[in-house]
Amino acid sequence: MTLTRPADELTEERDTLFALLGEADEHAATDFVIRLLDNGVEPERLLLELVAPVQVRVGEHWAANRWTVAQEHAATHISERVVAALSTRTPVRHSRGHVVVSCMDGEWHALSARLVAEVLRLRGWRTTFLGASVPASHLVSYLHQEGPDVVALSCALPVRLPHAHRMIETCQRTGVPVLVGGTGFGPGGRWARTLGVDGWAPGAAAAAELLEGRWPVGAPPRPALDHLADDEYPSLLKRRDELVDTAFAAVLRHVPAAAGYDERQREATEEDLGHLVDFLAAAVYVEDSELFTGFLDWTAAILAARKVPPSTVLVPLRACRAALYDFPRARNHLEAGITRLAVERKDQ
Ligand code: B12
Question: Is CATH 2.40.280.10 what the domain over 1-91 is classified as, yes or no?
Fold first, then answer.
């Protein structure tokens, strides 16, 4: 097979790979990508213009309820195999320093970090990939032991930012500069700056360019977290279970369908409400309502695809607002969320 189209945008190849992932055909998918490599497509393009966007499409299909969780898991597993196959076929001599690439504690989106590690390797860095959910203490002993030039940390979910902050600080104390990335740091990496990292990059290629330039630029900026002095964040964490119970009781009272939930549905609802409180806490941590309203936009889309009216979420939001009468910052974020959902409801 040869790529004869002038634009060579890999559009058709993305459709083919997506179809093979949908069929969970590991060997066909791997063979397909390796053939593209053999036909001269650069490995970095295969990672960033083929595997990465196809994974995003996998996420869209799951979110839209067109693919099951099992299909998504199978597809991601195959993408990991494809990345591994590309890696073994593209040896590179190290000409630059050592980068340790790791997921934050509690972060399971390892493929994103792996793509970053692979691109840096292809650009001549010696990379060590530590994988998903690395506890801070283990990462730090590794940094002491290995003394890398950079630690690159990935975070896909903004709800993990309070953990990310602790991890960033712990790494910085070892004297190793911290580069971060992933969708968890928000649009334009806004929360990376709040947490005082040495650097943020929107993607793997940008990360390579940043490290190839003047890096690190100087002492990392001080984290913009003075608001944490009011103790609202730890107090909110202490009330997590109580808030979930309060919100769940409100759902049972005001959402007629909830009365007929079976055990599994009740557990799933409690889990979702826990997620809601965790996102609220993360918004309180970085003091930005966008973190919470972004989560609600995402929730609304997920619910709509599953034929649940997004306005249902107004019930737990109002219950939390009533319970958190003495938490001014959390209440502001809840207000912003209620306004956002109420506007969406009018738009429907
Ligand atoms: C595969 C997948 C999973 C797999 C991950 C397995 C694995 N081995 O990686 C599993 C099943 C574990 C999973 C779990 C969950 N997931 Co998930 N997942 C995905 C999916 C479909 C693909 C992720 C991926 O590989 N993306 C491709 C890469 C290329 O994109 P990327 O992450 O943006 O990475 C690029 C840049 O961001 C950047 N970058 C990333 N890291 C770093 C690091 C550095 C240092 C730098 C510089 C740059 C950088 O460079 C990358 C390449 O250019 C995404 C959909 C999506 N849009 O990404 C959802 C997605 C991220 N998941 C989502 C969710 C909700 C979850 C769960 C909460 C689901 C649940 N209810 O359990 C859990 C949370 C688990 C956890 N605590 O981490 C949501 C997040 C929504 C939100 N509001 O935050 C998404 C967007 C799905 C969706 N459409 O709704 N997930």
Answer: no
Residue with CA nearest ligand 1 atom 58: 56
Query: Which residues lie below 8 Å from residue 239, measured CB to CB, with a gap of 6+?
Result: 323, 324
Using the Cα atoms of residue 297, residue 302, residue 303 and residue 305 in order, give the sign of their dihedral.
positive
* Pairing state between β 126-129 and 98-103: parallel
105, 109, 159, best to mutate for ligand 1 pocket (most atoms within 8 Å of CB):
109
Per-residue pLDDT at 40 exceeds 80: yes
291 lines ligand 1 (CB under 6 A): no
Domain 92-224 superfamily per CATH: Cobalamin-binding domain (3.40.50.280)
Tell me phi and psi for residue 32, to 5 degrees.
-60, -50
- At a CB cut-off of 8 Å and minimum separation 6, what does 12 contact? 5
pLDDT in tens, 320-332: 999 999 999 999 9
Nearest residue CA, atom 49 of ligand 1? 181
Q: Mean pLDDT over all residues of the chain?
A: 94
Joined together, the tokens standing for residue 188 give: 């334009």
The yes or no reply on domain 228-347 and CATH 1.10.3470 is no
- Compute the distance between CA of residue 340 and CA of residue 338 in angstroms, rounded to an integer: 5
